[in-house]
Amino acid sequence: MNRGFLWDIMNIGQGTDMESPLQTKGRHKSDINLFIQEVTVEKITADKTLDARGLSCPMPSVKTALALEAMGSGQVLLVLTDDPVSKKDLPIWAEATGNTLLGVTEEDSTISIYLRKG
Questions:
Q1: Domain membership of residue 47 as a residue range
Q2: Mind listing the pLDDT tens digit for each residue in 30-81?
Q3: In the predicted model, is pLDDT for residue 116 greater than 90?
Q4: Could you give the CA distance from residue 73 to residue 37 in angstroms, rounded to a whole number?
Q5: Starting from the edge strand earliest in sequence, which strands make up the sheet with 34-40, in order?
Q6: Domain count of the chain?
Q7: Which residues have a catalytic role annotated?
Q8: Does 9 have pLDDT greater than 50?
Q9: Is there a contact between 81 and 54 (Cβ–Cβ < 8 Å)?
Q10: Rounded CA gap, 65 and 40, in Å?
Q11: Which of 1-10, 38-47, 78-87, 101-110 has the lowest mean pLDDT?
Q12: Which residues, 6+ apart, have CB-to-CB distance to 114 below 8 Å?
């Protein structure tokens, strides 16, 4: 079973009751803005997969930007990479550009990064 982590960014204190579609039942809101929850990533369905394995920084980020540009708002992109820098860079870049990091998993040398286009 492929397990990973889901970053669920909450808009707590922003006057919204919007919940993440992957939110777990029975979770209570608190004053924290970010929490990490272990989830089964098989629940995330990608609309498109970008295979960036074999590419080194900055190419996985460049190809991710181009792929998301061609996608519709709300669609999910799965980025496959073996570049350890992308594991840190892509989540930061995604949030900075209005996209949402849904999850990151690692299996052998492949890092899978799930992004939702903003």
A1: 3-116
A2: 433 344 444 455 678 899 999 999 999 889 999 999 999 999 999 999 999 9
A3: yes
A4: 24
A5: 34-40, 3-9, 100-107, 110-116, 76-81, 48-51
A6: 1
A7: 57
A8: no
A9: no
A10: 26
A11: 1-10
A12: 41, 44, 46, 76, 77, 78, 79, 101, 102, 103, 104
Q: Which of 66, 58, 45 lies closest to 92 in space, CA to CA?
A: 58
The pTM assigned to this predicted structure is: 0.66
What is the helix (H) or strand (E) element at residue 67, kind and residue range?
helix 59-69
Task: Say how far apart CA 7 and CA 49 lie, in whole Å.
Answer: 20
Structure tokens at 97: 């550009």
Q: What CATH code is carried by the domain that includes residue 29?
A: 3.30.110.40
pLDDT reported for residue 95: 86
Which contacts qualify for 53-58: CB closer than 8 Å, 24 or more apart? 53/80, 53/81, 53/82, 53/110, 54/82, 55/81, 55/83, 56/83, 56/85, 57/83, 57/85, 57/86, 57/89, 58/89
- Tokens 């903003």: give the residue: 118
Q: Which amino acid is at 109?
A: S
